[in-house]
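Module 6 notes. Inverse folding takes a fixed backbone as the condition and produces residue identities as the prediction. Think of it as a translation problem where the source language is geometry and the target language is the twenty amino acids. Below is one complete input and output pair. Work through it position by position during the lab.
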């Protein structure tokens, strides 16, 4: 679901749909409580709590949609929230994994990119990097 290329990570369908339904349902429930509550203190309090759940679900959806990595034309392209990174596979020095996050280092030793190790399709990215001679530690 939502692939960016032939060699790409993607969003798992079930957590995405669950979060989408939670966001939509919470938003609808909060609006109904505010509209139909007519100033009742319990309705307003419940509406605020449900609105917080809706906001959290929307934030999680945003993070899900902006956390991906793909290889296109010999370049590893990653994105997490507002941070985009591109590095040619030939410029990668090594890749290490700590706490389910892959750190991609350039040949000078600096961190060039990070990839979430729990994404669906990460094995294809790692295999493509290995085929291009990237060293893993």
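Target side of the pair, the amino acids:
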């Amino acid at each position: 679901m939502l692939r960016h290329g032939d060699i790409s990570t993607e969003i798992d369908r079930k957590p995405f749909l669950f979060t989408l339904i939670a966001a939509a349902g919470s938003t609808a429930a909060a609006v109904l409580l505010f509209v139909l509550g007519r100033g009742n203190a319990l309705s307003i309090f419940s509406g605020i709590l449900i609105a917080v759940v809706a906001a959290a679900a929307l934030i999680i959806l945003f993070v899900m949609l902006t956390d991906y990595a793909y290889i296109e034309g010999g370049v590893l392209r990653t994105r997490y929230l507002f941070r985009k990174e591109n590095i040619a596979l030939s410029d990668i020095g090594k890749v290490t994994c700590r706490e389910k996050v892959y750190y991609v280092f350039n040949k000078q030793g600096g961190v060039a990119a990070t990839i979430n190790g729990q994404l669906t399709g990460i094995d294809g990215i790692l295999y493509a990097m290995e085929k291009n001679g990237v060293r893993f530690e």
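Reference fact for the lab report: The mean pLDDT is 89.
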